[in-house]
Amino acid sequence: MTNDNSISLNKFISQTGICSRREADKWIDAGKVKINGVVAQKGNRVGENDQVTVNGKPLKNKPKQVYIALHKPPGITCTTDLKDRTNIIDFINYPQRIFPIGRLDKPSTGLILLTNDGDIVNDILRVENNHEKEYLVTVNRPITPQFIKRMSNGIPILGTKTKRCVVERRGKMGFKIILTQGLNRQIRRMCEFLDYKVVTLKRVRIMNIRLGDLRVGKWRYLTAEEFKLLSASLKK
Question: What's the Cα-to-Cα distance from 42 to each of 33, 58, 83, 111, 175, rounded to whole Å?
Fold first, then answer.
């Protein structure tokens, strides 16, 4: 029995911290989820007295939600696949199950967020929300005004054209770029199109969260103020 306080099944599952809503939908489609012993379907709702099981195991109470900022070193892979010896989960070695929000290429460094809150993952990664991510990049030859102009106005990669973005020169061979997209290896591909090769790529900001002076390989919890601003921007 559900009631007026019921919530959607995929949200209920994601709020336990075991996966995102999208992953929960896959489990539901695969028949792995039951409500009170009955195989669940997409669109089902869950009330406070309902028992939900995944693969026959009752879901545990929702753990305290954690939000972590990590300064990812080069060589670490943003995957939860523990078969990958360079996976980010083993590297951070947090006592609760957490997962990265988005990814950074293995050779790239800088800010990556990790959490056990499946809802916030979807909200941050949703393309249409146009959330800013800021990077500092160095390349293998001097930056020209033409390079800045073309990078800013969009580059044809992966069968599309990148969105207009903010690009500023930083030194002879460096630049800052602020993206609202997250195409696969986007900055590297954009540079390659213009016959430049990325030497270093470091993410220094995701929305209102800044890397600051966090040392390579270290992590910290988001502050209450950071989370408040982040949550407010996700509701817009």
Answer: 10, 18, 31, 35, 46
Residues 219 and 118 in one domain: yes
Structure tokens at 11: 């949200």
Our CA angle for 206, 209, 211, nearest 5°, is 90
1 domain-assigned: no
Residue 230 main-chain phi, psi, to 5 deg: -60, -50
Active site residue ranges: 105
Distance CA 162, CA 183 (A): 8
Closest CA to 229 of 204, 199, 207: 207
Q: What is the 3-state secondary structure (H, E, C) of 33-78?
A: EEECCEECCCCCEECCCCCEEECCEECCCCCCCCEEEEEECCCCEC
Taking only the tens place, the pLDDT of each residue in 121-137 is 777 877 566 789 999 99
Looking at the domain assignment, is residue 77 inside a domain? yes
Find the domain containing 81 and state its range: 67-126+212-234
Overall pTM surpassing 0.70 (yes/no): yes
Answer whether residue 111 is part of any domain: yes
Helix (H) or strand (E) holding 92: helix 88-92
